[in-house]
Design a protein that fits this description.
The chain contains 8 helices and 11 strands.
Length: 255
């Protein structure tokens, strides 16, 4: 497809599935880096805190085997070795982010359901944050019949939440209401519930933190960051493949 030859670096299940989907669409997936490779595809997000590629690979060594004209694709591509390369960062792409949020929400709901002794219908659930993931969580949970409350800072957001059929409370005023909820889902990557706050929760409250940095303090919190690759790697891989085709090949594909 358009002379594209992709070398995938890093071994994650999502990347493995992505390469399968791309190969089925006619893209050339290379087994090893070479001078005629046009694109380097990394996991999303791409790097460990050490700078190594997720799944184990050395970026500097791989780049040394590739042309300087290579296009690098992945997520959070702020690596010093990439300073002079063309990069396509999926985590800066609004379409990818929206679809990834939907996958994350479905995975989080599955975790909540698997940890609850009751069904989600009429279950009182608090979602903290009204960003992409918060919106997807709220819509999916409301469709399942849950009793959904969304905590948001912005008064305009809270007004819209009420108009859409949700309960809503200010993020800074959660403490008096915490005892009500069977599930709390945090999407905000800053501290929002202290240990004193979580001590107010029901003893059987399922607390799930989806943020990149923990926002819920205390014990018993399920930190579920990076859910798509862990819980739905095939779906995540299909999204990566669709994004490669859309951004690198300039085509819209339904996989």
């Amino acid at each position: 497809m358009n002379g594209i030859k992709i070398y995938p670096a890093g071994k994650t299940m999502a990347l493995t599935h992505a390469c399968h989907f791309l190969s089925c669409q006619g893209l050339d997936i290379a087994d090893c880096p070479s001078a005629d490779t046009t694109h380097l595809l990394l996991p999303v997000p791409s790097f460990e805190p050490t700078g190594q590629i997720k799944g184990g690979a050395d970026l500097v060594h791989i780049l040394s085997c590739l042309s300087k004209d290579i296009t690098v694709m992945g997520g959070n591509l702020r690596h010093p070795a990439l300073a002079h390369y063309k990069c396509i960062d999926f985590l800066q792409d609004p379409v990818y982010l929206a679809e990834n949020a939907a996958i994350t929400a479905q995975c989080a709901i599955t975790i909540a359901a698997n940890n609850l002794p009751v069904t989600l219908k009429n279950c009182p659930i608090l979602i903290i944050g009204w960003g992409r993931i918060g919106k997807c969580l709220a819509a999916d949970l409301l469709a399942l019949g849950a009793d959904v409350t969304v905590a948001a800072r912005n008064p305009a957001d809270r007004a819209m939440l009420l108009a859409l059929g949700y309960r809503s409370i200010p993020t800074g005023e959660l403490a008096p209401y915490l005892m009500r909820y069977r599930v709390i889902l945090n999407t905000v990557p800053v501290p929002v519930l202290s240990e004193a706050d979580t001590a107010r929760c029901r003893h059987d409250c399922i607390k799930i933190d989806l943020a990149s940095q923990l926002g819920i303090a205390g014990s018993g919190v399920i930190w579920a960051k990076g859910l798509p690759n862990q819980e739905a790697p095939e779906t995540s891989g299909k999204l990566i493949a669709k994004t490669v085709i859309r951004l690198a090949a300039g085509k819209e594909e339904t996989l």
